[in-house]
Amino acid sequence: MSGAGPAVLAEGLTKIFGRFTAVDHIDLAIAGGEVMGFIGPNGAGKSTTIRMLCGLLRPSAGRAFVAGFDVARKPEAVRAHIGYMSQKFSLYGDLTVRENLRFFGGLYSVKRAEMVERMRFAITMAGLEGREDALVDTLAGGWKQRLALGCAILHRPPVLFLDEPTSGVEPEARRRFWDLIHELAGGGVTILVSTHYMDEAEYCNRVALIDRGKLAAIGTPSELRGHALGGVLFELECAPLGAALSILRAAPGVIEANVFGDRLHVLLADATAAAHLPSLLAAASVHAEPPRPIAPSLEDAFVSLVTRAPHMPAAP
């Protein structure tokens, strides 16, 4: 690969464990400095894909290049040019902030002359000035995650893989973490970040939706919201919810209906059909408030894609 190509490229990337296909022929290209969201439920194949791209798992089929290196043929070179943050907290709780940074700096072969400056950068980025000698176990979750990010970029990697980095972190800490992600991308770092939080996809330049090991779609958040549904979306408050869902899914003019919290999201081919939904449900002793039109969210797009066409081509 030439330096002008994508920072991350996967072609037909596949991983099979026995009779189970965890990742099924994924095609993915991520440009330099791009933040790509990798979105899907737990067990969809996000972590397995990332581990292959990091050179930690050998693909069963297909090929991938990261920072110009083949992940199957040169996994050591790949690992030297990436930062990786796993979904499970990976730092040492019985060591201090400073000791963790020194340890990971040594693992990444950061030169001694650069170590002090890189540690200072990581501490400032994590907002841990004055806490350098605190045991990591005493830190709040948001600080721990920012420190883990600081450790992952001590060696200035051009590509960064973040596997559900904000899982279990409070909302304010999540927002601060995403600010750091965009600061790094602004400096040219390519970032693939997986998450099962659909709202976090809005922070990405592009989003890859994955389900059962296959890509459902790839595009910008606005592209996915605009092209995935193919109808007019309404929100409906009704009770009992299960009975309403069964009735609406069989009703004429209804493309699909799905549960969202304590309400239904109903996709209609024609907006005028919405006015008839309450009376249709009332005939079956289901109470319903008047439907109201809503703008589709990425979660709506994802549910629609995997429900109607779970293995669509990867471009909207």
Can you tell me about this structure?
There is one protein chain. With 316 residues, this protein is an alpha/beta fold. The chain is built from 10 helices and 16 strands. The protein has helices at 46-53, 75-80, 97-107, 112-126, 141-152, 171-186, 221-227, 241-249, 277-282, 298-308, and strands spanning 8-17, 20-30, 35-39, 61-66, 69-70, 82-85, 159-163, 190-195, 206-211, 214-219, 232-236, 238-239, 254-260, 263-268, 287-288, 292-293. It has a 6-stranded mixed beta sheet, sandwiched between helices. Helix 3 (97-107) packs parallel to helix 5 (141-152). The radius of gyration is 23 Å and the shape is elongated. It starts with 7 loop residues before the first strand and ends in an 8-residue tail after the last helix. Mean pLDDT is 90; it is low at 310-316.
Mean pLDDT score, rounded? 90
Assembly type of the chains comes to single chain
N- and C-termini, Cα separation: 27 Å
- Overall helicity: 25-40%
Number of helices: 10
Q: What is the number of beta strands?
A: 16
Radius of gyration: 23 Å
Strand order of the largest sheet: 6-7-8-3-9-10
- What would the principal axes of the Cα set say about the shape? elongated
Largest sheet: 6 strands, mixed
Strand content: 25-35%
Order of helices and strands: EEEHEEHEHHHEHEEEHEEHEEHEEH
Unreliable sequence segments: 310-316
Structural class given helices, strands, pairing? Answer: alpha/beta
